[in-house]
Amino acid sequence: MDASTNRQIVVNEPSPVPIAPLPSRRFRIAFAAARGLALLLGTFALLNVLGELRNPSFDANLWWIDLRFANRTLNKSLMLAAGIALITFAMRPRFAPLRGWGLGSLLAVLISAAACNWWTFHRIIAAHVVQSRAIVPLSAVVVGVLGFILWGVLFRTSAKAPFLLDRLAMTSTVALSSLLFPLAQMYYFGLTDYRRPADLIVVFGCRALASGRPSMALGDRVATGVELFHAGFADRLLFSGGPGDGDVHETEAMRNLAIELGVPAEAIEMDRDGLNTQATVHNLVERYQGVSSQPRVLTVSNFYHLPRIKLCFRRSGWEVWTVPAVDSNRMYNQEWSMLREVAALWWYYLNPN
Length: 353
Description:
Blueprint (H helix, E strand, L loop, with lengths): L24 H30 L17 H20 L5 H30 L4 E2 L5 H17 L8 H27 L2 E2 L6 E5 L11 H15 L6 E4 L9 H11 L7 E4 L5 H11 L9 E5 L4 H10 L5 E4 L9 H17 L3
Parallel strand pairs: 3-4, 3-6, 4-5, 6-7
Antiparallel strand pairs: 1-2
């Protein structure tokens, strides 16, 4: 037998290519949450920019980031680009590295702007321009949210969570953020006191009891307006509201209490057709239509109501300053009032007319 037949043939097989481990489920859920936040912020930014084409006062991007350091064109271009890029990342997270670095750079600019807003807040608080019960401003939260989205962009992966888990994480993030965003406005903006010298103090109505006395919430609003009046911030008070539970109109209950607290009757005006926030704003704007200069106005209501008041006035082209009513006692149904205000704020935002 030929020895060569016993020779074993050795085949050099290529060494196996190492397979990168799949990201953990926790990582993939966090990644889906970052995309959900990107979808909400991107949609909000884009809606505001496009809505301004219909109504110049529609833009509400100032509610989450202040870019007024830039000129109007640069401001709108930046928000338009951010809106499109964030939505693209949310819907199609797997894209070329160059696009990823472009979005990352755009987020870095927004984070820097929000950090400047954060610093500005502490500067005006230190200068006693405004007073706030919030420890940190909303801009600090915005820095954190944008930083989380930036993490998702820089460390994005091609390995997605299972379809249902991925959609559930994104949908839950959008739903929860849609609830928390208005609540954050109530807490951060609503609890900030912007009092300053004005021409008129407008106190928004609330429930007047069947006995003719103001409810606790209405009494707190009137008492705060009267305090501003006695402190000399304005020499006129305007009470706006609708029918009470009994025969006494809300504005009459407000007027009676103000007179009891030492306000002269001649310093009080009443708007009996202020059936809701939008009606009060419309009536006041119409009252001063044709006047050469817009009056400086302080608006008073409970803290959770103030973001909607500010939104309505801004949509009407007016810039007003808000003062939260000082609570004499915590309202027993405050949480319910805040949840109801979440729905009202989104409704007013999506129905600007």
